[in-house]
Amino acid sequence: MKVELYDTTLRDGSQTEGISYSVNDKLRIAKKLDELGIHYVEGGWPGSNPKDREFFKKMQKVHLKTAKLVAFGSTRRAGIKASQDKNLREIVASKAKLVTIFGKSWDFHVTEVIKTTLDENLNMISDSVSFLKSSGLRVFYDAEHFFDAYKENPEYAIKTLQAAANAGSEVLVLCDTNGGTLTDELVGILEDVKSKVKAPLGIHTHNDLDLAVANSIAAVDSGCVQVQGTFNGLGERCGNANLCTIIGILATKTKIESIPKTKLKDLTQVSYFISEVSNVKHDDNQPFVGRSAFAHKAGVHIDAMMKSPKTYEHIDPHSVGNKRRFLVSELAGKTPIVLKAQELELELNKKSPKTKKFLQLLQDLEHKGYQFEAADGSFEILMKKAFRKYKKFFELEGFKVMVEKRKDNRVFSEATIRLKVKNKEHYSAAEGDGPVNALDNALRKALKEFYPNILNMRLSDFKVRVLDAEAGTAAKVRVLIESQDETDSWTTVGVHENIIEASWQALVDSVEYKLLKDQTK
Question: pTM score, two decimals?
Answer without folding.
Answer: 0.81
